[in-house]
DNA sequence: CTGTTAGCGCTTTCAG
DNA sequence: CTGAAAGCGCTAACAG
């Protein structure tokens, strides 16, 4: 284990003081060309790498921003994380990630750990921690929260209007002539999920369609949940020609359930998702979905923390908007079946796409 | 910005010396119950959090292991990362992640950064850096490499036998009666991809089937590549009843291409992937794939670095094996079409699943 | 058991 | 422009 070499050794070899080396390294002051060269040389020869830990202690800042996400195995969070990475390029900060697996305790622990590491700023993606706690922490370290509106003047929150997104999805379905539209929900109690559901009901109402609770099934944002939700819906035997899923992963599960019952998308039922995760452009059929520009969101978050750290006010630019990406999982309801045939009763029927 | 409080303040409030507080915190020595209580109390009152940076500098170890991955937006890498997280639970180490986006330069930079942060150990997932460089770094910091066999006695490598996996996939297809088996490759020059391809050829040979280069198309491990590869294959107009894809993402793309040409999986062509990424159980149809137990691999990697750090020899247990997970994207070739009908010429034909 | 005293490696006044 | 010296916050001998 080759011993780590230090600034002091470099200084000695170059015949200067440690402060000079430090200054040269950080460009804080001009250093005589001659000495600079000598320093450069000994750095090479010794293969010196500054100890960031010591530097962090001395400077009082670590040049790191901590990113807390719920789950690493998730295209959704990944996109945002990637955005953060992108956004940090060009700034002098590095990101370190940690995930909390939806456990509130874990979140608290990770948060503490990040603070212990003295990150200069924090980005929390869809945190579950309550506003008050967040507010408290934000008083100690610059914090931006992504995916949720936090009621605190210390934390900078970046969130989309999920209602608007759901609106887009519903309008699309309605315009295609669908009247019996089922809904597969997200985890209850989460603002974004609630918002989507509320909009689903409102949209129905605005279109003069009675809300039917039997057309909604609970989901949990993951494939398995979508699968069982759709199975439940189908088992109830009520007719519906389209389904709006609270997120893409649920939609995948729903599509598989449909497939298992020999029902075809979009011929038998149209499905629209939410998130427009990378995979959605490649599933069969490609999924119509509400795109959340997560990458961009991540980038904005990165810029915001850096601004916060620098004591600037984060630019409150016009945020990227949610938009509907129409693909092949939705189609207009054919006139003859506008009377809403029952998907359930058509199981195993032969209504195939006319070739 | 509430000022960060220090050990010293805690000590003062508790009326003891800093070392006593430190000892109590780390459990290095017994501390009188009375004082311990006082310390505990002032910690509470001041809401003290140890400064891990200072601690790291003083101890000479940071209790962190760095994890370098190629891409954060990838179910493949995610699984392994998650495994590392899991494997670290119970140990006193935290993981910090960084991704390098397949850029060799980025890799070097990140590696340097991790070393600068004085991580106690390093896990590199599918690094592109050459063996010699890896070997050099490994002499300074405990290192385990996942996904590749590194020729160095300093680095501990953990890799699967991709040849075996490919073997499994091919045997499955062959047993199902397929003779004309196409292949969609991975990025050239990468050991794992090369290994899979080689095995594809060998398996064909062993089965007495002539290798036909026109049945292989280049891919790049991502959906788009799989899509164009399959399109190319179809355009060549040669008959094939099955396709082996170098990884799952390619398979998704291939399945979409098939869908676009009105070809059905597995009725018209069977497809098998490699990796068995989480989503594969939920695509339509669920994909038959060679499972790489990445999660477990990540866990093992975590245990290995910890062992290495502690100066122990990492346990070389029997590693989890690759296995074939048979789902619904493959099926036996019906006898009558055993003479290998041309998928291409059947495009838009009506051969649908008999209902 | 506990206080005192040195550092860990680097930055940053403070004087030249 | 540059050296000396004083920390950053915590741990780890070293003496009680």
UniProtKB/TrEMBL annotation, chains A, B:
Highest taxon of the lineage: Bacteria
Domain HTH cro/C1-type: 4-49
Pfam families: LacI, Peripla_BP_3
Record's compositionally biased regions (Polar residues): 338-348
GO molecular function: DNA binding
Membrane-spanning intervals of the chain: none
Region (Disordered), start-end ranges: 333-355
Span of domain HTH lacI-type: 5-59
Keywords, comma-separated and alphabetical: DNA-binding, Repressor, Transcription, Transcription regulation
Gene3D superfamilies (alphabetical): 3.40.50.2300, lambda repressor-like DNA-binding domains
Descriptive protein name: LacI family DNA-binding transcriptional regulator
């Amino acid at each position: 284990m080759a011993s780590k070499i230090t600034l002091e050794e470099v200084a000695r070899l170059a015949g200067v003081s440690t402060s000079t080396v430090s200054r040269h390294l950080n460009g804080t002051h001009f250093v005589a060309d001659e000495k600079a060269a000598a320093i450069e040389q000994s750095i090479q020869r010794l293969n010196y790498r500054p100890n960031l830990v010591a530097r962090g202690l001395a400077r009082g800042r670590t040049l790191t921003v901590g990113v807390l996400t719920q789950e690493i195995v998730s295209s959704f969070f990944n996109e945002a994380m990637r955005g953060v990475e992108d956004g940090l390029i060009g700034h002098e900060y590095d990101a370190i990630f940690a995930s909390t697996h939806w456990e509130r305790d874990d979140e608290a622990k990770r948060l503490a750990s990040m603070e212990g590491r003295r990150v200069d700023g924090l980005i929390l993606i869809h945190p579950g921690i309550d506003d008050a706690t967040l507010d408290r922490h934000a008083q100690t370290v610059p914090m931006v929260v992504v995916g949720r509106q936090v009621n605190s003047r210390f934390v900078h929150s970046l969130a989309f209007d999920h209602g608007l997104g759901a609106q887009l999805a519903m309008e699309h379905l309605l315009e295609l002539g669908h009247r019996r539209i089922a809904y597969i929900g997200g985890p209850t109690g989460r603002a974004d999920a609630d918002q989507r559901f509320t909009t689903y009901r409102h949209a129905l109402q605005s279109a003069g369609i009675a809300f039917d609770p039997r057309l909604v099934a609970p989901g949990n944002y993951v494939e398995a949940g979508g699968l069982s939700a759709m199975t439940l819906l189908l088992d109830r035997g009520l007719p519906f020609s389209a389904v709006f899923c609270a997120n893409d992963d649920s939609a995948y599960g729903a599509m598989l359930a449909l497939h298992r019952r020999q029902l075809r998308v979009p011929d038998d039922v149209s499905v629209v998702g939410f998130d427009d995760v990378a995979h959605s452009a490649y599933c069969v059929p490609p999924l119509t979905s509400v795109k959340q520009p997560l990458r961009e969101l991540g980038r904005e978050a990165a810029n915001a923390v850096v601004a916060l750290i620098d004591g600037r006010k984060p630019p409150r630019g016009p945020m990227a908007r949610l938009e509907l990406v129409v693909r092949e999982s939705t189609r207009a309801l054919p006139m003859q079946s506008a009377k809403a045939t029952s998907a359930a009763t058509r199981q195993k029927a032969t209504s195939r796409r006319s070739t």
